[in-house]
Design brief:
The chain is of the alpha/beta class. The protein has 3 domains: about 45 residues, no CATH class; about 120 residues, 3-Layer(aba) Sandwich (Udp-n-acetylmuramoylalanyl-d-glutamate--2,6- Diaminopimelate Ligase, Chain: A, domain 1); about 120 residues, NIF3 (NGG1p interacting factor 3)-like (Udp-n-acetylmuramoylalanyl-d-glutamate--2,6- Diaminopimelate Ligase, Chain: A, domain 1), CATH 3.40.1390.30. Helix content is about 45%, strand content about 20%. The strands form 3 sheets. A 6-stranded mixed sheet has the order 7-8-10-11-12-9, sandwiched between helices. The longest helix has 27 residues.
Length: about 300
């Protein structure tokens, strides 16, 4: 009888090992469309690590970013609800179709972006590209989490704070913005340089060729103000601070004349390029706080 029991245990171990190998091969080959696909997805989650609750993540972000304190052009927070359990977050600057498709391939449970949907001037009907985007999200039961102005303004994780880190600018204080909040920052360079040298450093660090408007390209830059994205009209607040240069993402025709007439050096360093870093920092922070996975995917944009 003892021999039979030992043999039975040995057989169980063999079948268990074979089952684990089969599951591993199915996962590696992406075979998740079988009748046991739900079980396979759960096993994948177990392999990948811990889970977090969607609502806990959303609530945490609200407290962290104080998004309810902002009057924004779009809703901040959970824009489209998906599954409750979150193992992997994929972040990106804008919720374009290319990011959605890439996130699905990464088995994302939540997509975190700076530019989401439902802007105040958007059409109120969902057709064409908008229908395809939302259909993609709903079909894969993925959550879409978006933070616009709150992610610009956060003192540590925000786009402007992170831009200072990337460029190694010393922050002295906050700058008022035309959106009604103190989103921008001002400070000084670690080493003063010419306007042309700063243009070159922006190009190198942000991987984007910036537009520079300078009455004198050899102007020495020491004090600087910046606000990421489409904050060109904040040049007026930069002028009030008496800085040598102002950096934002996008240009506007009127800014050329203001820069020429006042002598301030203006840089349009790319809307996308200046706003890559906040969403990465937030995604990384959530990954560490909740013990889940995070991947940033950069979809190139020349604007």
């Amino acid at each position: 009888m003892g021999v039979v029991i030992v043999q039975a245990i040995a057989c169980c171990r063999i079948f268990s090992k074979l089952f684990r190998v089969m599951i591993r091969d199915n996962l590696n080959q992406g075979a998740v469309d079988c009748p046991d696909s739900v079980s396979l997805r759960m096993l994948r989650r177990m392999q990948e690590g811990s889970m977090a609750n969607r609502d806990a993540i959303v609530s945490y972000c609200e407290d962290l970013l104080l998004s309810s304190h902002y009057q924004d052009y779009c809703p901040n927070g959970l824009q489209i609800e998906g599954k409750s359990n979150i193992t992997r977050i994929v972040s990106g600057v804008s919720a374009c179709q290319a990011l959605l498709d890439a996130a699905i391939k990464q088995h994302a449970d939540m997509i975190l972006v700076h530019h989401g949907y439902f802007w105040k001037n958007d059409s109120r009907v969902i057709t064409g590209y908008a229908k395809k985007r939302i259909q993609t999200i709903l079909q894969h039961d993925v959550n879409l989490l978006a933070y616009h102005l709150p992610l610009d303004g956060h003192a540590i994780l925000g786009n402007n704070a992170q831009l200072a880190n990337v460029m190694q600018w010393a922050i002295e204080g906050s700058m008022h913005s035309t959106c009604g909040r103190d989103l921008g920052l001002f400070g000084h360079l670690q080493q003063p340089c010419s306007a042309l040298d700063l243009q070159s450093k922006l190009n190198k660090n942000l991987a984007h060729d910036p537009l520079m408007i300078a009455k004198n390209p050899n102007t020495q830059i020491k004090r600087i103000a910046w606000c990421s994205g489409a904050a060109g009209d904040d040049i007026h607040h930069a002028l009030a601070l008496g800085v040598d240069a102002f950096v934002t993402g996008e240009p506007a025709e009127r800014l050329y004349h203001i820069a020429q007439e006042t002598g301030i050096v203006f840089y349009a360093a790319g809307h996308h390029a200046t706003e890559r870093y906040g969403v990465q920092a937030l995604g990384h922070h959530l990954s560490e706080h909740f013990g889940i996975q995070h991947t940033f995917i950069d979809i190139p944009c020349p604007i």
